[in-house]
Structure formats: structure tokens, C-alpha cells
Amino acid sequence: MRMERINQIRVRPAAVEDAEFLVQSNARLALESENLSLDMDRLRNGVHAMFEDPTRGFYLIAEIDGVRAGQMMITYEWSDWRNGMFWWIQSVYTVPEMRRRGVFRALYAHTEALARENAVCGLRLYVDVHNHAARETYRLCGMKETAYHVLEVDNVITRLP
Fold first, then answer.
1. Beta carbons of 31 and 40 less than 8 angstroms apart
2. Which of 66, 45, 65 is nearest to 56 (CA)?
3. pLDDT per residue over 24-83, tens digit each?
4. How many helices (H) and strands (E) does the chain have?
5. Which domain holds residue 39?
6. How far apart, in whole angstroms, are the C-alpha atoms of residue 68 and residue 70?
């Protein structure tokens, strides 16, 4: 897998040694973005499951001066209409003290280049409708809102109305 530097930000594939960083970042992400406290054992098992079965997807780590600055998870969705694979961008998190330094932009550029190299038919992500800053960031990267709405049945996390 490729490694890339943008503005002194190094993006690399995550390794199992990064698992605890991923766990803690995901927990902070859930709390910051959705005010959710995740079950840490379930989360830790979920992060390790990705490393144990690469058909689920992969994580990327962004570093600044050798310090982990952010993360992104990629999962897969087959599209029969396109006869190709979409990559879903998920679990995007930047460490607070590293924000506004281009961490997401570096992760996204790296992912976009990897997707082109691997003949991926497109990139997707979902974002909370109230998270205007994130939506604008994604638009600036070239992403567009679709006509689709996400519907779900979640048997694990209960959200308050």
C-alpha cells in the first residue's frame, strides 16, 4: 500500500500496533460528534476485527513529525449497477491539537489516489446533517451530496430522539 506526504503529513496504512490509538480516537469521535459513550470492549474488538479480516476494509493513519494526528477507516460496498466497488470513508478523526493543519485533506488525498490505483468506482461517506463544518470540508474535497438518505436499524446503539 502506498505512503504519501502532504504538507509534512505522512499517511500510512495502520498496523495492529495502532489499535489502541484507533480505539481511543473512535471513542472520542463518538462522544464529540454524536454525544455517544461507546462500549470500549465492543469497540476494541471491532477495531481488532478489521486487522484480523482485511476483507472488511482498512485503516489509515496520518502522522505529523512521527506523532499520530488522525485516522480514517475504509470499508467496501459492491455496486452491481457500476460493476465496481465503492469505498466508504468512516471513522474520520483528527486529534484536537492537530486540527486545522490539513490532516483530513491528506487522508482524503491519499484515499482518492489509492482508489484510482485500485479501480474503485467511487468514494462515499455519511455525515450528520447538522455538522456543517464537516460537510463544507467534504465539499471542498470535491464530494457532492446525493439524493439518498441513510436509513438504518441499529441493534447495538440506542440513540435518544
1. no
2. 45
3. 999 999 999 888 999 999 999 999 999 999 999 999 999 999 999 999 999 999 999 999
4. 4, 6
5. 4-140
6. 6
Sheet of strand 84-94, all strands in order from the earlier edge strand to the far edge: 4-6, 9-13, 57-64, 67-79, 84-94, 122-125
- Assess if residue 65 is contained within a domain: yes
Mean confidence (pLDDT) of the chain: 93
Q: According to the model, what pLDDT value does residue 3 have?
A: 57
Q: Is residue 131 part of a domain?
A: yes
Whether 43 and 31 have beta carbons less than 8 Å apart is answered as no
Please name the helix (run of DSSP H) or strand (run of DSSP E) that holds residue 67, with its range, or none.
strand 67-79
Residue type, 142: G
Compute CA distances 120 → 26, 37, 57, 80, 90, whole Å.
25, 33, 13, 13, 16
* Residue 110 maps to a domain: yes
